[in-house]
Amino acid sequence: MASFNDTVIENFRANDGVLGGHWEGKTTLLLHVRGRKSGRDLVNPLVAAPDGDSYVVCGSAGGAPDDPQWVANLEATDGPVTVELGAETLKADARVVRPGDADWERLYGVWRDYWPDAADYETKTDRKFPVAVITVHR
Predict the structure, then answer these.
(1) Please, which residues bridge with residue 85 across strands?
(2) Antiparallel, parallel or unpaired: β 131-136 and 41-47
(3) Rounded to whole angstroms, how far apart are CA atoms 100 and 104?
(4) Across-strand partners of 20?
(5) DSSP 3-state assignment of 97?
(6) Which of 9, 13, 71, 86 is the most buried (most CB within 10 A)?
(7) pLDDT tens-digit profile of 41-72?
(8) Where are the alpha helices (DSSP H) in the chain?
(9) Whole-model pTM?
């Protein structure tokens, strides 16, 4: 049985990165990271708030009590990552920004303002969500 993320990934790829329903009108990207324990290539669909030449994605996990694994996997990554954005597969630089980092508040605000579910996620946990800045190589 396909997981929720598998279904989102399949729809993303079938429609050149355009998703309908809850994601309609929002940019989504597929972040490829290597599992720091498994060594496998893992793909994560993420809402991506445009921020200048970059995108801000958030490790909210829908308000779960713990960070999603992709955050730690991204922190363990040395060098560029691969992202699928629209119909393109591209290399990108990525950095995780955690609460307390100098630019976290601004970056989290960009994502929070972009994704309407953010306020609901915040009510489900005391955790402050890390964000990642994804800068695509063009």
Answers:
(1) 29, 88
(2) unpaired
(3) 7
(4) none
(5) strand
(6) 71
(7) 999 999 999 999 999 999 999 999 999 999 99
(8) 4-14, 69-75, 104-114, 118-123
(9) 0.95
CA distance 75 to 110: 21
The first and second tokens of residue 21, run together, are 């329903």
16: its two tokens: 């050149």
User: Quick one: tokens of 131?
Assistant: 């964000």
Residue 134 DSSP one-character state: E
Low-confidence residues of the chain: pLDDT under 50: none
What region, left, alpha or beta, does residue 17 occupy, with left being phi > 0 and alpha being psi -120 to 50 degrees? Answer: left
Q: Are 69 and 28 in contact (CB under 8 A)?
A: no
Cβ 29 vs Cβ 134: under 8 Å? yes
Q: Which amino acid is at 6?
A: D
Cβ neighbourhood burial of 74 (10 Å; 0-12, 13-18, 19+): buried
